[in-house]
Amino acid sequence: MQEKIMIKHIPHGLNDPYQHFSFELVPRKPKTEEFIRVKAELKPSFREEKPLLQWKLNGHSQPPVTGRRVV
Asked: What is the model's pTM?
């Protein structure tokens, strides 16, 4: 049986202005042309998974981005 993988991503966090989490967008409310980091938690965390981010800008598909593990 194959083990299930859980991906946790809450773009705007848990609405706590004083605490940042490992599964939220940084910054939470980006400005136009601002660099962002899309963070997520993958569980189980011991696996060597590389998530693939598929995203759109103004409704148009953009090139996918391969994630990297940050400890």
From this structure: 0.71
- What is the domain partition of the chain in residue ranges? 1-71
Whole-number Cα distances in Å, 34 to 2, 17, 44, 49, 54: 39, 19, 31, 28, 19
The type of residue at 33 is E
What letter represents residue 12's amino acid? H
Q: Using an 8 Å Cβ cutoff, are 24 and 55 in contact?
A: no
Q: Are 35 and 22 in contact (CB under 8 A)?
A: no
Angle at 44 between CA 41 and CA 47, to 5 degrees: 100
Structure confidence at residue 57 (pLDDT)? 87
Hey, how many other C-beta atoms are within 10 angstroms of the C-beta on 21?
13
- pLDDT 10s digits, 6-34: 889 998 889 888 988 999 999 988 898 99
